[in-house]
Design a protein that fits this description.
The complex is a heterodimer of chains A (about 400) and B (about 230). Chain A is of the alpha+beta class and about 400 residues long. Chain A is about 55% helix and about 20% strand. With about 230 residues, chain B is of the alpha/beta class. The two termini of chain B are about 20 Å apart. Classes of the chains: A alpha+beta (about 400), B alpha/beta (about 230). At the A-B interface, helix 1, helix 11 and helix 15 of A face helix 2 and helix 3 of B.
C-alpha cells in the first residue's frame, strides 16, 4: 500500500512527475549514448588487439631485439610441433602461424609499400576485422594475395590483374613473385586497408627464403587468462628458445586509452548525477512541502519518521525507475542504429581506436547498469527531500500543511 | 486508574520575540470510557491540549501520563508506537489520504501496525459497516460528502482499537445535520463499544452530547460539568 501511495501521490502532481521522469530519462539517454560509444570503442579495440598481436604472441627470443628480424635464426623452425603442445592447454582456442614482413606491391607502372602477413590456410585474421566485405576466398589455398580494394585503386589494378610482390629476402637480396589476386577486401578502417595485405605462409617463406614461421599467435577462450596461460607456457617455450608476450604488455597504450574511456564514462555519470539529482531534489522537495499535512496526519496515526522518509524515497525511486526505463527505451533504437551504421566523426574516430566511422556497441549489462544508475539518481535526489520532510514535528507538519 | 493524567501542564510557543502561553498549568484526569468535550473560545488552548494528550506535541513543563506511564520518557519511535496502538485521531478537516480509497484509508493504521492482511480486510469491512459507508469502500475521499469523510476518519481512528479517540472540532467543517450525525456515530461507539472520546468544540449544540464538559479559557481550566 505504501508503494501504491507513493506512486499515486506522484501521479497526483503530473507536471512534476513528468519533469522528474524526463530528467531521469534524459540522464539515462545520455549515459546510454556515451556507454554505447565506449562499448563500441572497447569492442573495436579488443578486435584490434587480436588483429595486431593476438592474445599471446610467441617468437624466438633472438628476434625480439634483432636488427634484422628476417634472419633465418630468428624464425621458429618447428611451429607445428610447438602449436601441438600449446593447444593441450584448455585455455588456448587456436594457435596460428604468422609471418609479418614489409613488401612493395606493383601493378602496371605503380607501386605501394605494404605490411604483409604470411598466414595459414586456417587463419582467423580476417574474421577479427570489425566490419568489412570480401570478394574471392580468404583464407586461400595455394599462391595468391589478399589485398584491399583501396590498395588496388592506389596501384591502379583491378581484381583480375596479377600483382608483383617485391621483398628483401633473408639474405638481403631482392626477391619477387607475381601472384594472382585471390581476395579483395574492404574493412571499416581505410588506414588498415591502405597498408595491409596477406599471402599464404608457403608463399611468404618462398619469397623471404625462410622456413617455419616468424610468430605464433595464440588466441585464448578468455583473454583475461593471458598472463596465467603465458606463465604456464614459459618453461616449455624457453626450452624452444622462444618467449611469450601477452596482449596487455604489447598493447599498453590501448589499455591506457580504455582506462581513460572508463574514467570518461564515470565523469559523465557523475556530472549527470549531480545535475539530475539537483532537479529531482527540488521537485520532490516541493512535493514533500505540499504534502506536509498528509505526512503529519500519517505520523499522527502512528507512522514513524523513517517510514515517512521511506515513503518519500519510494516516490522518488518509482519515478526514477519509470524515467530510467523510458530513457533506455528511447536510447535503444539510436544506439542500435549507430551500432549498425556508425557515427561519422572523421579523424577523431581513429584517435579513439575506431575505423573510418565510430561504431557503437550494445551491452545488456551496461544498459542494466545505466537503468539502475538512473533509478539511483532519483533516490539520491529524494534523499535530501526525505530528510527535510521528516525534520518537522507532527504538530508543525499538521499546522504547515 | 486514569487513562490520561495531566499534571500542571504548561505549553509556551515562541513567535519571534513574543512568547505565547497556550496552557498555563493545566491539570486534568480522563477515565476510560468517558465522552468528554473540551470547550472554549478560539485560541483558548483546546487544540494544544488535545495535541499534548495525543502525544503529537510535548509540554514545556508539567507531567503527562498515559496509561500511568510518563510520556516524557518516550522517544520519537515510542511515541509513534503509542499513537499507533492506543490513540486514534479525528481531524477537523478529515485529513484523509486523497490518493487512496476509503477502505485503504481505514486500513493504513493497521498496515503500520503490521497486522495480517486478512485480519486487516475483515476489520476494514467491519468498520465501514459500523460508520454506514459499505457501498463507498472503493471510492476516493473527494467523491464523498464532508460528513461521509468525517465518518471515514472516525473509522480510521478506530482501526487499531485505540484506548482513546481524540477529535479536534470534528464538526467544525460540517453543516448542522451532518455534524449531528457524526456526533451520533461517536456517541454510539462510546456507548456500545466503550471507546473513550475526547473532543473539542466551541459550538454549544455539540456540547450537549458530552457526558463531561471541560471549560477552557486563556490556557486555564475555568470549570467543568458532568451530566
Amino acid at each position: 500500500m505504501l508503494l501504491k501511495m507513493a506512486l499515486l501521490s506522484a501521479l497526483k502532481r503530473p507536471k512534476r512527475a513528468v519533469l522528474i521522469i524526463l530528467t531521469v530519462a534524459l540522464s539515462v539517454f545520455v549515459m546510454e549514448f556515451v556507454s554505447g560509444w565506449v562499448e563500441g570503442m572497447r569492442d573495436r579495440m579488443n578486435k584490434k588487439i587480436v588483429q595486431e598481436t593476438a592474445h599471446i604472441l610467441i617468437e624466438r627470443s633472438a628476434r625480439v631485439d634483432a636488427l634484422d628480424p628476417l634472419e633465418p635464426k630468428n624464425y621458429i623452425g618447428n611451429p607445428a610441433a610447438i602449436s601441438e603442445v600449446l593447444l593441450k592447454d584448455a585455455r588456448v582456442s587456436r594457435v596460428e602461424e604468422v609471418t609479418p614482413f614489409g613488401a612493395l606491391v606493383m601493378a602496371g607502372g605503380k607501386n605501394l609499400p605494404l605490411k604483409m602477413y604470411g598466414v595459414g590456410s586456417d587463419t582467423g585474421f580476417f574474421t577479427q576485422v570489425a566490419r568489412g566485405s570480401l570478394k574471392g576466398t580468404f583464407p586461400f589455398k595455394g599462391p595468391g594475395i589478399a589485398i584491399s580494394q583501396r590498395a588496388l585503386d592506389l596501384v591502379g589494378a583491378s581484381g583480375s590483374d596479377r600483382i608483383v610482390v617485391l621483398v628483401k629476402d633473408s639474405g638481403g637480396a631482392p626477391a619477387y613473385k607475381e601472384l594472382p589476386i585471390a581476395c579483395v577486401f574492404r574493412t571499416d578502417d581505410s588506414s588498415f586497408d591502405d597498408s595491409t595485405a596477406f599471402v599464404d605462409n608457403a608463399t611468404a617463406s618462398d619469397l623471404l627464403g625462410t622456413s617455419g614461421a616468424a610468430e605464433l599467435w595464440v588466441r585464448l577462450v578468455d583473454p583475461n587468462q593471458a598472463e596465467a596461460a603465458s606463465k604456464a607456457m614459459l618453461p616449455f617455450l624457453s626450452k624452444e628458445g622462444c618467449v611469450a608476450r601477452t596482449w596487455s604488455s604489447l598493447q599498453g597504450s590501448l589499455l591506457v586509452l580504455i582506462k581513460f574511456m572508463d574514467m570518461f564514462m564515470l565523469m559523465i555519470n557523475i556530472i549527470v548525477l549531480v545535475v539530475a539529482a539537483t532537479v529531482i531534489t527540488n521537485a520532490i522537495l516541493m512535493n514533500v512541502f505540499e504534502k506536509q499535512r498528509e505526512y503529519g496526519t500519517l505520523r499522527a496515526i502512528g507512522m514513524k519518521r523513517r517510514q515517512q522518509a521511506f515513503l518519500v524515497l519510494l516516490e522518488g525511486a518509482g519515478q526514477g525507475v519509470a524515467g530510467a526505463l523510458l530513457g533506455a527505451i528511447l536510447a535503444f533504437p539510436l544506439v542500435l542504429y549507430l551500432a549498425i551504421h556508425g557515427l561519422p566523426i572523421g579523424e577523431a574516430s581513429h584517435i579513439f581506436g575506431g575505423g573510418d566511422v565510430m561504431y557503437f556497441g550494445t551491452n545488456f549489462f551496461s544498459t542494466l547498469r545505466n537503468v539502475g544508475f538512473g533509478a539511483l539518481i532519483a533516490v539520491v535526489g529524494s534523499l535530501y527531500a526525505a530528510f527535510a520532510g521528516t525534520r518537522s514535528s507532527v504538530v508543525e507538519a499538521l499546522r504547515n500543511g | 486508574m486514569a487513562l490520561v493524567e495531566l499534571d500542571t501542564i504548561v505549553k509556551d510557543y515562541s513567535l519571534g520575540r513574543t512568547t505565547i502561553h497556550a496552557l498555563k498549568g493545566v491539570s486534568l484526569s480522563i477515565q476510560p470510557g468517558e465522552f468528554t468535550c473540551i470547550v472554549g473560545p478560539s485560541g483558548c488552548g483546546k487544540t494544544t491540549m488535545l495535541n499534548l494528550i495525543g502525544c503529537i506535541d510535548r509540554p514545556t513543563s508539567g507531567e503527562l501520563r498515559f496509561d500511568d506511564v510518563r510520556t516524557a520518557t518516550y522517544g520519537d519511535d515510542a511515541e509513534a508506537e503509542l499513537r499507533l496502538a492506543k490513540i486514534g485521531f479525528v481531524f477537523q478537516s478529515f485529513n484523509l489520504v486523497p490518493v487512496l480509497s476509503i477502505a485503504e484509508n481505514i486500513e493504513i493504521p493497521m498496515m503500520l501496525a503490521h497486522r495480517p492482511k486478512a485480519e486487516r480486510r475483515a476489520r476494514v469491512k467491519e468498520l465501514i459497516e459500523l460508520v454506514g459507508l459499505s457501498e463507498y469502500a472503493a471510492h476516493k475521499p473527494d467523491e464523498l460528502s464532508g460528513g461521509q469523510r468525517q465518518r471515514v476518519a472516525i473509522a480510521r481512528a478506530l482501526a487499531n482499537e485505540p484506548r482513546l479517540v481524540i477529535a479536534d472540532e470534528p464538526t467544525a467543517n460540517l453543516d448542522g445535520a451532518t455534524g449531528q450525525s457524526v456526533l451520533d456515530a461517536m456517541k454510539s461507539l462510546n456507548e456500545k463499544k466503550g471507546v473513550t472520546f475526547l473532543f473539542s468544540t466551541h459550538d454549544p449544540r455539540v456540547m450537549r452530547y458530552a457526558k463531561r464538559v471541560v471549560r477552557l479559557r486563556d490556557g486555564e481550566i475555568e470549570g467543568e460539568e458532568v451530566s
